[in-house]
Amino acid sequence: MKKWLMTIGVFCMVGALYALPVAFGERRVEESPQKAEDADCKIFIEVEGQSEKIPLETYITGVVAAEMPASFHKEALKAQAIAARTYALKTTNYGERAIAPTVARQVYYDETKRKSNWNSDFLGNEKKIVEAIEETKGQVLLYNSELITAMFHSTSNGKTESAYGYSGNELAYLQSVASMSDQSSPKFAAMREFSLDEWNALWKVKWQSNDFKRVQLTLNASGRVEKLQLGNDVWTGREVRTLLQLPSTDFEFSFDISTQKVYVSTKGYGHGVGMSQYGAEAMASNGSTSTEILQHYYQQIEIKKVDACLK
After folding, report:
1. β-strands 261-267, 189-195: how paired?
2. Global pTM?
3. Count of domains observed in the chain
4. Angle at 60 between CA 7 and CA 182, to 5 degrees
5. 231 and 163 co-located in one domain
6. Do residues 128 and 77 make contact, with C-beta atoms less than 8 angstroms apart?
7. Quick one: CA dihedral 59, 82, 135, 63, positive or negative?
8. Which of 158, 201, 237, 260 could pair with 225 as two cysteines, CB 3.0-4.6 Å apart?
9. Would you write out the chain's pLDDT as a tens digit for each of its 311 residues?
10. Please, which domain of life does this record's source organism belong to (predicted)?
């Protein structure tokens, strides 16, 4: 049978969701010394669309390469590796279920894709990312001895979103924290425009020019839109983001009556929960370690090392 072993006390952090739906029971981690004969045991990850299962650390290499620019500082890449490894193990129940290589889970690039993307930079980028993987090999994030749902996103609006603010589910380790350095991210601010006809084609109600003056936006504690109300019609911020294909739920809009166009401005990129990738890069560039980055974005967690063995 499978025996999951934890190496005692690699890091302890007493710092300070929405949990994406995972159809498995929680596996409580038991601490146990690793035996020499267990050294070659591996966890394999089944990625949808891939013909064969992939060793965990090889999979994490492909995730970090897809999810974070290789130009980022190594400490940011290491933080991403630990978060991605944790997320993968929780989502797949330690390799027992497949995971999709999409933004709804984690994007994954195989070696062929990495070579195509990086071209002449492949060897240097690959070396840097593999080093980040090796330096964090097996490390995962735990809360109360259980894997956390280690959500991450590109860029916050200056504050990360809490699990409660995102889904109404309170998770102690996913609280809203400051991430002001995200304002330097190229993805921090965006603007979209719609003709009034394009706008009305997306909604179940037909907007008139005066509706833009009477619409009400309710914000949550992180400054994102909790709900939008127009008369008796109400949408959540997440519903509007999906409807309009916006980068985030921190949005506001206006209507130019002379051009008959709707302008929507947004701040941040992604759901905003957990680690901000550009925030992690800013912290790393200022000298923070991967441990400090993870301690900032995930509350009351500890880092330990996991290995799997077949008995």
Report:
1. antiparallel
2. 0.86
3. 2
4. 105
5. no
6. yes
7. positive
8. 237
9. 333 434 333 333 333 333 343 333 455 554 444 444 344 568 999 999 999 999 999 999 999 999 999 999 999 999 999 999 999 999 999 999 999 999 989 999 999 999 999 999 999 999 999 999 999 999 999 999 999 999 999 999 999 999 999 999 999 999 999 999 999 999 999 999 999 999 999 999 999 999 999 999 999 999 999 999 999 999 999 999 999 999 999 999 999 999 999 999 999 999 999 999 999 999 999 999 999 999 999 999 999 998 665 32
10. Bacteria
3-state secondary structure 15-46: CCCCCCCCCCCCCCCCECCCCHHHCCCCCEEC
Residue 81: closest CA among 66, 63, 94: 63
Residue 159 sits in the same domain as residue 278: yes
Residue-wise burial string across 113-135, b where 16 or more C-beta atoms lie within 10 A, e elsewhere: ebeeebeeeeeebbebbbebbee
Is 39 in the same domain as 164? yes
Which amino acid is present at 52? E
- Tokens 């911020």: give the residue: 237
Closest to 278 (Cα-Cα) out of 154, 194, 115:
154
Domain assignment of residue 136, given as a range: 2-182+272-310
Pairing of strands 233-236, 251-256: unpaired
Tokens 């330097």: give the residue.
184
- Whether 255 and 283 map to the same domain: the answer is no
Query: Are 141 and 254 found together in one domain?
Result: no
Residue 129 near residue 77, CB atoms below 8 Å? yes
Angstrom distance (rounded) from CA 173 to CA 300: 6
Counting Cβ atoms within 10 Å, is residue 27 exposed (0-12), middle (13-18) or buried (19+)? Answer: middle
